[in-house]
Design goal:
The protein is of the alpha/beta class. It has a single domain, classed as TIM Barrel (Alpha-Beta Barrel). The protein contains 10 helices and 12 strands. It has a 12-stranded mixed sheet. α1 (49-61) runs parallel beside α2 and α3 runs parallel beside α5 (143-155). The longest helix is centred in the last third of the chain and has 15 residues, at 293-307. The two termini are 33 Å apart. The model is unreliable at 317-322 (pLDDT under 50). Bound molecules: S-adenosylmethionine (SAM) and iron/sulfur cluster (SF4).
């Protein structure tokens, strides 16, 4: 029998938003996200298309109304678009929104198909508009493809939101220009603080830039009016009078946004992390590959609700730059 009980954790938070990672692989190597010689998972460990589909439908049955596909880079997975099409059929039938977070390198190829499948909005990560700087930050010279991808997405009717990680000494001087460009193109932009996830070569603390500082600097050039807009995520929003656009700020390290948390994450291997900033996890792949997948999945989701922590445990100021959590963002998705 289908389990349709809503997902409610022990702090009475109703979980309606799932971020599902479909691959840990990526065609870029953003320095804050993964090392150049990243070890990717053996394919057998990654959920098959059928498993991802079954899992996503199980979540929709239990009240997930917003589903974001992420990675790694979701668009490098070959059968990805089939999954999008299959999930698109649930829109209006339990699912309210199907979205994706992408680095944009393959968006020019897929934007039309995403739109045709019912995707209306996507997030594209963009940390700089300078080609040489992009090549340094992402360790790949792919800015032209990304810009082409963003343009293709807009042309296909997708609403594009840009995500920018604010990095001290790397792109902080460019943030106003990036925001002005985004708003000029009709895109919302959200700034993110760098989070201590997984080992990378550089000490991330060197590049940690508190958004309170960025906000203070932006307020010297523009008028930032606090907005009542909410996206169902942890961002706070401002309308910038001069650019006419919206700016989001996500400050996981300087702010506590856990109280209203409505989300969970599942990795490409089916590990459910009830909190991005915690070590708690439940193995959904084992449930899916068990003799009675439906029963095992129900029980695993109940367990996830039982262990979802009240708040995250991030701290970036660890001496020696040891990550607060050993897994990379490319595992749990952004
Ligand atoms: N590859 C896709 C992309 O880049 O949009 C999706 C996955 S990526 C892990 C999702 C988001 O996480 C990106 O916006 C990226 O900039 C951000 N990210 C990765 N590592 C991060 C870190 N250590 N701290 C903060 N944001 C991070
Ligand atoms: Fe790839 Fe996204 Fe990580 Fe960059 S942030 S390396 S694009 S997964």
């Amino acid at each position: 029998m289908t389990d349709t009980r809503p997902l409610v954790d022990q702090f009475q938070r109703r979980i309606t938003y799932l971020r599902l990672s479909v691959t840990d692989r990526c065609d870029l190597r953003c320095a804050y996200c993964m090392p150049e010689r990243m070890t990717f998972l053996p394919r057998a460990e990654v959920l098959t298309l059928e498993e991802l589909h079954r899992l996503a439908l199980g979540f929709v049955d239990r009240g997930i109304t917003k589903l974001r596909l992420t990675g790694g880079e979701p668009l490098v997975r070959r059968d990805m678009i089939e999954l999008v099409r299959a999930l698109g059929r649930k829109l209006g039938d339990g699912l309210d929104e199907l979205t994706m977070t992408t680095n944009g390198t393959r968006l020019a190829e897929f934007a039309g198909e995403l739109a045709a499948a019912g995707v209306r909005r996507i997030n594209v990560s963009l940390d700089t508009l300078d080609r040489a700087r992009f090549a340094r930050l992402a360790r790949r010279d792919s800015l032209p493809q990304v810009l082409e991808g963003i343009a293709a997405a807009s042309a296909a009717g997708l609403k594009v939101k840009l995500n920018t990680v604010a990095l001290k000494g790397l792109n902080e001087d460019e943030l106003p220009e990036l925001i002005a460009w985004a708003h000029g193109q009709g895109h919302e932009l959200t700034l993110i603080e760098v989070m201590p996830l997984g080992e990378v070569e550089e000490d991330r603390f060197d590049h940690y830039l508190p958004l309170s500082q960025v906000q203070a600097r932006l307020e010297q050039i523009w008028t930032l009016n606090p907005s009542s807009h909410r996206s169902g995520g942890p961002a706070r929003y401002f309308d910038i009078a001069e650019t006419g656009g919206r700016l989001g700020l996500i400050t996981p390290l300087t702010n506590n946004f856990c109280e209203g948390c409505n989300r969970i994450r599942v990795t490409a291997t089916g590990q459910l992390f009830p909190c991005l900033g915690g070590g708690e996890r439940v193995d959904l792949r084992a449930a899916l590959r068990s003799a009675e997948p439906d029963v095992a999945l129900s029980a695993a989701l109940d367990e996830a609700m039982r262990i979802k922590p009240a708040r995250h445990h991030f701290a970036i100021d660890r001496p020696g730059g040891a990550p607060a959590l050993a897994r990379h963002m490319s595992m749990t998705g952004g």
